[in-house]
Amino acid sequence: MATLFETRGNMTDSPLSTEALLDGVSGAEVLVSSINDRIDADFIASMPKSVRLIAQFGNGFDNIDVEAAYAAGLTVTNTPSVLTEDTADMAVMLMLALPRRLVEGAGVLPRDGAWAGWSPTWMLGRRLRGKALGIVGMGRIGTAVAARARSFGLNIHYFSRNRRPPQVEEALAATFWDDLDAMIATVDIVSLHTPLTRSTHHILNAQRLAAMRQDAFVVNVSRPELLDEEALIGEIERGHLSGAALDVFENRNGLNPRLLKLAREHRVVLTAHMASATLEARLEMGETVIVNIRAFIDGAQPPHRVLPESKGKLRS
Length: 316
Ligand code: 8YV
Description:
Largest sheet: 7 strands, parallel
Number of helices: 12
Distance between the termini: 24 Å
CATH class of the largest domain: Alpha Beta
Bound molecules: 2-keto-D-gluconic acid
CATH topology of the largest domain: Rossmann fold
Oligomer: single chain
Strand content: 5-15%
């Protein structure tokens, strides 16, 4: 970007305050944002009028009030596709890690430096093959998760705004549900792959968590607000759900101590928002940002424009 454009960057790799961000965009035409930057209606109203494009470095864009941006005549873009495979890898890795006790097992030798040896009941986990996986949101990432999960012998179920074509369902042997409550009450694993919008906020609410099968578990590599974290913790604590594997969690006032306790007891696996963290994904995200900016500056439609929900769809 520094070669192509006159660029002012945050080189610290840590989030900027609103004031610093506003200062940074003064006189700029483009703001390149990430999930850490809160681009709400107030921020948009305070932004210098020179800014015409918000080019998000990321797939999700729930940190941006897209509605307010469009009302102010701004264009918003994101970087889909390039982090699909890495994110799907992570979802499946977590799906395996929890029932096969990977984190707990991998910690034994480094902690004790020795091991008493194998026994028939040593580190017994639960088998994944034959279980029913319920995918909430069968977009790019959900579909990539389904393809991987299929090869691990999971039976694929999904709930999505748009039903996938018959050939996709056939290839994945996937069952479509138009009733989320019914699907959730049937499957052994619920994995969330829907974007965070007003309508998906707490899509996995207390009632749905309570309706899940005994010993079922939850995987979330999407956004923490998709589930009611308090209710999830409660269901695990009371022994109804067998656990959760989360790459995202509420962290506004620090991590919930009850969640941390469950992680220390190995009933929950926590990774720290790293599902798309590969060098390759980050480079391709950067390239996608550049393509979006270049197209916009050249007066063309940027390839990865995102539209407000009220326009009837999320992405162009
Ligand atoms: C990104 C993500 O790294 O793209 C997303 O939606 O959740 C992340 O994996 C982050 O959003 C960067 O803005």
